[in-house]
Structures are given as C-alpha cells and as structure tokens.
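Sat 14:20. Reprocessing the chain from the morning session after the first attempt stalled halfway. Input below, unchanged.
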Amino acid sequence: MKFNLKNKTVLVTASSSGIGRATAELFIKEGAKVAICSRNKENLLKTAAEIKAALNIEPMWVVCDINKLPDIENTVKVVKDSLGDIDVLVNNCGGPAAGYFEDMKDEDWEYGFNQVLMSAVRFTRLVLPGMKAKNWGRIINITSVSVKQPIDNLLLSNVFRSAVTAFAKTISSQIGKYNITVNNVGPGFTLTSRLYDLAVIKAKQSGESHEHVLASMANDVPMKRLARPDEIASLIVYLASEQAGFITGSTIMVDGGIVKSTY
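Finished this time. Tokens:
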C-alpha cells in the first residue's frame, strides 16, 4: 500500500527515543521530510546519526523543551523555514510524574498540564494556518490506554491525556472542512525507556525486581507480550496517509487487547 507521503513535511515531537523515534523512522522510509525534536541535544545528535547510518537520510533536528512556549514557537519556525509548512504533526511527549493523588503537588499538576495538554495545543495552533492554506493536514496525538482505562498510579497521565483526546475530538469537527484530520493513538504497554522507568518505580514499591514487574505487565496483556515501538508507529503513519483521510476525531488503541471497554 502506498501512503502518498513522499515529500510531506512531518514534525514528530519528543522523538529522540521510543515511539517518537520509531515514528520518525517510518515516515522517513515513506519518503517524508522529517524533523525530530527533544530537549536533550546530545540525544538528538545520537539519534540523528543512528538514523542516518541505518536509512542514509538524516532527519532535521531541533532542541525543544515542549513545556516552554518559546521553544515550541522556535521549533515550528525553524522547521517551516527549512522544510516548508508542516503537513503532518505528531504530538508526542514523555509521561508526567507517576503517583497517586496525595503524592501530587501543584507544581506536578502544572508541569503535567504543560507537558501533555498545552504542548499539543500550542503545536497544533501553530501548524494549523499552513494546513488550512494547503487544504490538507494531519494531526496525530500519542496518548495512552489510560484515556479509556485509567492506570491506578498514573493520575496525571490519566487526566491530561484524556484532556488531549477531548481537545482532538472537539477541534476535529471544526477543521474537518479544511481536509485536516485529528486523531489519537493510545499505546498499551510498549517496551520503551518510559515503561522501564515505571517498572523500576513499581519494583521499589513492591520489593520485586523490575524484570518481574515487566513480565507481569506482559502477562496482563491478552497477547502475552509488550508492544514494539514500531507497532505503534505503523498506525500513526497510516493515519497520516491519504487512505485514512475519512478518519477523524477517533481514538484508536494499540494495546494487545488489554483495554476491556467495548467502545
């Protein structure tokens, strides 16, 4: 299947590792012009070099702390000046602090608000004029299974990722007339550094090894394994394609069947 993404300008945020990186790599394989960003310059340089070695194409990279509006504005400007108006925006971010309600201070809530919700709002606001001018665009938010089935010790993620899905559903009806789609992808337990860190935290609380915690997570999944980042990325790239042009306002799980909801 041809996705017709050749020479489309794609920005994948928080993409020096994990699902973001896997997504950037798949877009490059489809012939898109890809920009990646992260707040860690060293990680960006390493990732860009590794992608070039593997695919013979180096993605554009920009240092960006997605919690900061000036960084977001600069990133969109640099990408636009170098590659043209952004056709596909993939809003990705790391997870906010893990913990329960009584663990959270105001600064934790404010950080998670900016990291998860406002980063998506701000990037979307900045790319929309270019998409409207072309009468074409794709906005894809990477959320979590927690938007349908909350995870007990991930309060902030549950709250703000659910807010992203509500944001996407609302604006999808407002900008559909411009041939712009807005969708959410909800990864299940995926073997990334974020999941590893969560397993370490849980292991310290339970007294188990993190290996045992990861194995238990995999066992909870009907498919009895963790997802690979590229399995999440495959759906993201599809949603950016011409073939997915009539899908909008949707939240699609890639979870190995762990969500029990029927809708």
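Residues 191-226 form one domain.
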